[in-house]
Amino acid sequence: MSAGRLAFGVLLAILLVVPFVPMGGMRQYMLHVLIQIFIWSFIGGAWSLMGRFGLVSLGHGAFLGLGAYTTTLLWNFFGLTPWLGAVVAVALTAVLAVVVAYPCSRFSVTGHYFGLVTLAVGEVIRLLIIAERDWTGGSLGLTVKPAGGDSLLAIQFADKRVFYYAGLVLWALGLWVWYRLDRSMARSAMEAIGEDETAAASVGIHVTRFKVGITVLSAVVTAIGGIAYAQYIAYVNPDTLAGIGVSLRIVFAVVLGGMYALLGPTVGTALTIALAEVLRVVFGVTYVGMAETIYGLLLIVFIIFLPSGIYGSVRDVFRRPRAAAAPATA
Amino acid sequence: MIDPIFLAEAAVNGLLLGGVLALLALGLNLIFGVIDIVWIAYVDLVMVCMYVVYFLVQVYGWPIWLGSLVSVAFGAVLGMGVHLLIISPILGSAPINQLLATGGLLFFLQSFATFLWTTDHRSVRINLPTLEVGGMFLSFSRLIAFVVALFVMLGLYLFLRHTYVGTAIRAVSQDRDAMALMGANPRRVYLVTSAVGGALAGVAAALLIIQYSVHPFFGAAFGPLTFMICVLGGLGNMVGAFVASFIMSEVISIGGVVWSTEMGYVIAFVFFVVMMFARPGGILGRRA
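^ Those are the sequences you sent over. The predicted structure of the assembly is below.
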């Protein structure tokens, strides 16, 4: 693994100096794209915390939206700093995660059924946001009230570099959480549950406790990602932060990258965002919808031809000789 | 307090909507029952067919019945196309990949429709009277849609019960491995099922376009509801889906009148989640 660590160190060093590389007028735009990649990779990583164990959620938009809207509403209406707002939002998200995960586990709602239950939850949050339009602005969304200049208390900064470094730290933290889980006993327990719940229970694994725990962890990390995105963009919208659309996008990016690898979600997210940006620049406003059309087509093609994700497939190519020598552990 | 006449009107409208929803749910359920894949983009196929009817009838002046027939045929071709191009290469993949491939189709259809036809809402204008029954105002087009939907479902039932292909479809949905051993060709059955599912989408499109206007995000509006109906009835369970359609449409319709349209959906979705915990195998189902 030392080669992997070295590569990771080099990547981190490059990312640390990016904001000071002269890029002419492109700097703001480059930073904007990279910040989005950090935040959405973080969210994708959060999804894969549970997705890799067969808990395929199609409703992570619920946690994203709940997090983002809670802090934004508390700040806009009560002037509560997003730092404290985030605590409230995380608590609420954890409660929602338990409310969803506990019965799902108790009543063995798994597979397709779990996906569709979470999808319903995601839609419920989206529709509630739209229905409560007196505070939330409904489908029009809501602008985070400006603090008037840079403010650490309000987490609002004019300089994108602040958000860049914050995003970088957030992303690294997300990887750390993923890595810790990967090295923990919980991972073995969750894998056993993912393979066969009854067998796992019979060897003394507390199935419900682990499932609820992993869902809460994933939901909370997702909510933090949602808060970060809302603070950066300073605007929240039910369609971009809740519901089926964004939930599917998160899953896409992760599956495209490969959900069983540490950097899989990051690779997938970076690729989908880069692709979306390139298509947007190429087609601009002349052909509305064309960029998304190609995006959809490419997603289908990728899934058909790279079933274990890009990162996963590339890694398999390098790992194959070793895997043949020692039978695979995965 | 709400005038009881409004509640009664909402109840009847819910019943009429339920007929069309049942058609959608049956199409999706048929495909799921046989091929074991949830077509996330199913209602987007309906959306495309609705555009077909719109253009034939409203722009080229075809009679509505002819436009509807074309829509059914187009839906069947679309269903086969989806199966051959997207589903059959990934039949052996992980379920999540299968789900996401049709999810990619959803993005594709939604954005391609935006590209071709913009986000304008378009509707077919046919002049049908509004009926007044005991103080309730009922739209005649909804009534027609309801009756046609019932007849098509009856036809589907007869097709599945009394034809050779229909029997093969039901057999595969019961045990796909045994069917292959019996000498039937599952691939052919899959293709026929996809065509039938697509044709049902075409019928639903013709019935929906006379009540609702079509826009590229039509699938996003009705899609989640359709999956939930299927799951509520028990995935693959036809009778369950039929019953669940009417439950959901009544909740939405009455909830919409008592609170607001969004709250009607919220109540329906929360009801769905609660029912999943109470009866995870569907309202009529047993756990497998």
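The first helix of chain A runs from residue 2 to 17. Confidence is low (pLDDT under 50) at residues 323-330 of chain A.

Shout if you want it in another format.
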